[in-house]
Design a protein that fits this description.
Helix content is about 30%, strand content about 35%. It is an alpha+beta fold.
Length: about 110
């Protein structure tokens, strides 16, 4: 089983993926393909996604979890944590420097106490 989530991708790529997978929601594709076709689809995604993002999850017998991830240009990265592959949100330098201290309503309430 393969699940692909595309964000900000060309419409041609979405049309190309519908040859093998079903688009259950805009940018979300689900289906069952063999490993060779899955790898070729990932290569096609990497070549045509341009500035967009892509996440692929697929079932495999190589991990204890029974599935694996592939990520391209996303805020999430795949990390190995004691034999388990997990998704970890990466910290962006833009995000940490973009917000000034005390900007939220919660921080204002904490100051009042």
């Amino acid at each position: 089983m393969v699940t692909i989530v595309l964000t900000a991708c060309p419409a041609g790529l979405r049309g190309h993926l519908t040859r093998w997978l079903i688009e259950v929601s805009p940018g979300v594709f689900v289906g069952r393909v063999n490993a060779r076709l899955r790898d070729e689809l990932w290569k096609l995604i990497l070549e045509t996604v341009k500035d967009g993002r892509a996440i692929m999850t697929y079932s495999t017998r190589e991990t204890e979890q029974g599935f694996d991830f592939r990520v391209h240009r996303h805020d999430w990265s795949v990390e190995d944590f004691e034999g388990l592959r997990v998704m970890r949100r990466t910290t962006s330098s833009k995000r940490t420097t973009g917000m000034r201290r005390g900007w939220s309503a919660a921080s204002h309430l904490r100051r009042r106490k």
